[in-house]
Amino acid sequence: RQRCLAGWVAQLQRAGVSSSDAFSLNRVLGDPVQIREWGLKHLPKDDFSIDNAIILTRSLQWGLIIDPQGQANRFLKNWAADDDIKVVKETESQFSRDVTNAIQFGQPLLVENVGETLDPLLDPLLTHD
Fold first, then answer.
1. What is the DSSP track for the chain?
2. CA distance 79 to 112
């Protein structure tokens, strides 16, 4: 990510667009109050995790999180706990019903342990149909 950002800043400078040499998503798009709140919800305090949370909350698409250490999973569960997050796995027998209910009642939904392919039930959700 740092290499991409450095390349982007270099392209801006070549094009004559003024920018900071040390671009940071945190400084440009971050809200210090929200970032502090995320820390209270157990988001790791490193720049990479904060940048990922900023991207996740500002994105118009659904996030796919590769999380071998479980840090993002733990954070998302804490972050959406007040909204009664529904945590499901595709292998569960009530997966379809749980997804449908979460959509119907506006609950946040976290699908864990996603494999190489997704259940077709999720296609309309992911494509915003």
1. -HHHHHHHHHHHHHTT----SS--HHHHH--HHHHHHHHHTT---SHHHHHHHHHHHH-SSPP----TTSHHHHHHHHHTGGGT-EEEETTSTTHHHHHHHHHHTT--EEEES--SS--GGGHHHHTT-
2. 16
CA-CA distance, 114 to 98, in Å (whole number)? Answer: 16
C-alpha 88/C-alpha 81 separation (Å) is 14
Q: What is the pLDDT of residues 63-76, one digit of tens each?
A: 888 888 989 999 99
pLDDT (tens digit, 9 = 90+) per residue, 76-90?
999 999 899 999 999
pLDDT band at 129 (very low <50, low <70, confident <90, very high): low
